[in-house]
Amino acid sequence: MRNGEVYQIDTDVAIIGGGTAGLNSAMAAAERGLKVLVVDKANIARSGAIAGGIDHFVAYLETGEPWDTREAYLKYVGRVARGAADLKIHEAVYCEELEATIERVERIGIPLRNPTTGEFYRTQAMGQPGPYFINFNGKRLKPKMAEEVQRLGCQVLNRVQVTKLFLHDGELGGFTGFDMRTGDFYRVRAKAIIISTGNTSRMFKAQTGNPFNLWYCPACTGDLHRASFDAGVELANMEYVRMTIVPKGFSAPGFNAFFGMGSHLVNSLEERFMERYHQMGDLAPRNYMVWGALQEIREGRGPIYMDCRHLSEKDREHLFTTLGYDKDTLPDFLIKKGYNLEGTMIEMTVSEPMQARPSEQCGSGIKIDENCASNVPGIFAAGDSSDQMGCLHMCTAGGYAAGKHAADYAKKVKHLRQVDSKEMADERERVFRPLGKKRGMPYWEFEDIVRIITTDHFGPVKTENSLETAINKLDWLDAARTDLKADNLHELMRVHEAMNIQQVAKITATAALARKETRFPPYHYRADFTETDDEHYCGLIVVKKDQDGKVTTRFEPLSYEA
Amino acid sequence: MPPVIDRDKCNGCGICDQHCPLDVLYVENDVLEVRYPDECWHCGVCRQDCPTGAVTIEFPLIMLAV
User: Fold this and answer.
1) Taking residues A231-238, what's their average pLDDT?
2) What secondary structure letter does DSSP report for A520?
3) Which residue of A has its CA nearest to B63?
4) Do A213 and B63 touch (CB under 8 A)?
């Protein structure tokens, strides 16, 4: 296997991760007249969490209903994401951008309104005080956003995995990446970058054993969580492991659609059990639904089912269509399993955990301020990979906000910063080293070991002892990294993903050690501290690596109106 | 295994190869190969974007049987 060419690119704003947030960032920066580069590990037409489609957009619409205002919405966010969502940032990156975002999504060709009635189809679930979910057909939203980015003249590098960030005097200089199809190596210098690479999947054992049968996109492997952490960027909300309720056999989304349309979660005794765990029953925030399901299964009242029998025929039809908007192949799967819309209850289970936000209304990753900036000048973040954004509504609105702020910053930077050429050459050598090794460990074996460690020790129940055990084992595994081999460029990409998953697992366990309480159970369930302790832990655990390689955590309080 | 290609319908255009988010599909010399079937996310992008309707999704037994 021959290595490819080396290319040098200089740009004003570079976006790493061309999913929903990244493409909205690219639009904002390009509209401000800057030279914009988008780098994606897949193809921006179909990459990231909504590659195959999406069915819901969260919004308040100021219709005059008391729950439909900015104030009511922010109160809801504070209530359901207490301790993880910074309302000042939420207001700046989402509320201020919402109206323009709805307009932009519809302008690029995806109607959020029902095309025949002109009305929004709105449903309620997950702790909302009113129907904040707009149901819509977003199967082509991703390619439409990609077309808009191309129309605005952004340069795009598809199938390129970014491997390292480079600083100059404590400020961003550039980054490196390689093309998984050609072996070409890219050395990029940029005045500002926006990181929008999602969260970390494939970090815990999955229900059928296949680490690609996942709720969220399996291509999101914490590549830039790891790279930015190594560059001294602060991360927050990393201690949470996120799960949901999925069909047995297929870790597919559909939660919003099922509960939004009024489906019930029942146990094998056909009891609606959620009332035991949360006053809102089936409309409770997601973590409580998962918590309830886990208890029912653990206490012997499983399997659990999604009961749709009481829905009207019209609602069942709407539900089935919407499920296919969110996950194209889910209706086929349900039919293949023998479920019909008339009278069958659909067996469900709890999905694999992943490193991601504890609530729909925040993120998990690079700690951002109201300008979407990290603690390192020139490095911005947006979407799921930031600590404050998640879901389509935040990724479209907040992604655009990040693009604006990165553009403003880049305009003030007179010259591209120098990047040490030898360091970039060393990185190229490191990146391609596993390629063509005759003997060694395949990526999947290494990844399996990581998943056993994480699942045994914090997937999801954790204690100080279990977390320290996990960190020790994950540290011990560092020595095996040099044994990893790749027979081709695709495997080389997977090798780097596997190593990133392992490193993020350490960060997650380290942050979880510092939060000596339980919050959003089971996303952060400490068996040695089972109560929520708002007095000491209502806020962010911030984790950072110092220049000497030492990892530190600190607590940053967040406050909310009563 | 997940995407199954109807050879008679596939024209080797390569759109599925370009669009697959998991780098599962490869078109070389106008011939499509499902090279990494175990790494399929079942997102349905290949089926949605295929201009000739050559892709069907087949779920492995483990997903249906458990």
Assistant:
1) 98
2) T
3) A249
4) yes
